[in-house]
């Protein structure tokens, strides 16, 4: 575990690792699960994703280019944002980093930038890979920059944890950082009248920012539950409308039979 950063070399990667790389000159990071064979399963907006966040947010991954090496690179199911890519296409010439799990609260707070580590403990590699491959075939719901992005996908694969409350920030550390920084600045602004020193204001703002980031970490939150990947669609309500339609059709058929 790096004390300053989580950068690693390719020979250090192990199946089940949560990898990430930075895009757009370190503006944001893109995350995925290494499943072996130089392949990474990751989550991005599907081809039908049309949202203001697609053009205005830095958390989105740009459209991929065809891979000249692996024929199955870029595989995804229709209308799904979960993609299988080779490591080269995932990195896009960026550096390689490994997300850290089970870190101490002290180390977590020293990482000023979110999206690099969590206090939550990971599951065994075989479980992580199973979740990633299952979601590759079945999808991970709708992409959402702040509640269901690539980091949320990778963290679920590693921990199996979901947030009960659908409102607010998801598991993503970089999303909580994006929200926490301006929030901390706003909350600390009234203190300018009491603390004229710029250093004092900066210290208070940094402290509020760190506290808000730690409070949203899935390792300390009380609103998270362990959900099996096979039950994920039911828990997130992805198939609710389809299930309700099927139930209505069955009821109508039953009624027709009785009437006849």
UniProtKB/TrEMBL annotation:
InterPro entries recorded: LRAT_dom
Pfam families named among the record's database cross-references: LRAT
LRAT domain location: 20-166
The protein's name: LRAT domain-containing protein
Species classification: Eukaryota, Viridiplantae, Streptophyta, Embryophyta, Tracheophyta
């Amino acid at each position: 575990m790096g004390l300053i950063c989580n950068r690693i070399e390719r020979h250090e990667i192990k199946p089940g690792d949560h990898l990430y790389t930075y895009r757009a000159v370190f503006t944001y990071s893109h995350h995925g699960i290494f499943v072996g064979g130089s392949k990474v399963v990751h989550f991005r907006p599907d081809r039908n994703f049309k949202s203001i966040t697609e053009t205005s947010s830095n958390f989105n991954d740009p459209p991929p280019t065809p891979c000249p090496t692996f024929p199955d690179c870029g595989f995804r199911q229709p209308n799904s944002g979960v993609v299988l890519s080779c490591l080269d296409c995932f990195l896009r010439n960026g550096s390689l980093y490994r997300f850290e799990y089970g870190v101490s609260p002290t180390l977590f707070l020293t990482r000023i930038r979110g999206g690099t580590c969590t206090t939550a403990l990971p599951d065994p590699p075989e479980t992580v890979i199973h979740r990633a491959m299952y979601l590759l075939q079945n999808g991970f719901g709708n992409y959402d920059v702040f509640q269901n992005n690539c980091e949320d996908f990778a963290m679920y694969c590693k921990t199996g944890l979901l947030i009960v409350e659908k409102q607010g920030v998801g598991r993503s550390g970089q999303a909580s950082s994006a929200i926490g920084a301006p929030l901390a600045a706003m909350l600390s602004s009234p203190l300018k009248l009491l603390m004229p020193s710029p250093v004092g204001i900066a210290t208070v703002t940094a402290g509020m920012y760190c506290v808000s980031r730690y409070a949203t970490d899935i390792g300390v939150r009380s609103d998270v539950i362990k959900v099996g990947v096979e039950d994920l669609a039911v828990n997130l309500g992805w198939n609710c409308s389809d299930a309700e339609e099927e139930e209505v059709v069955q009821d109508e058929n039953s009624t027709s039979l009785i009437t006849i």
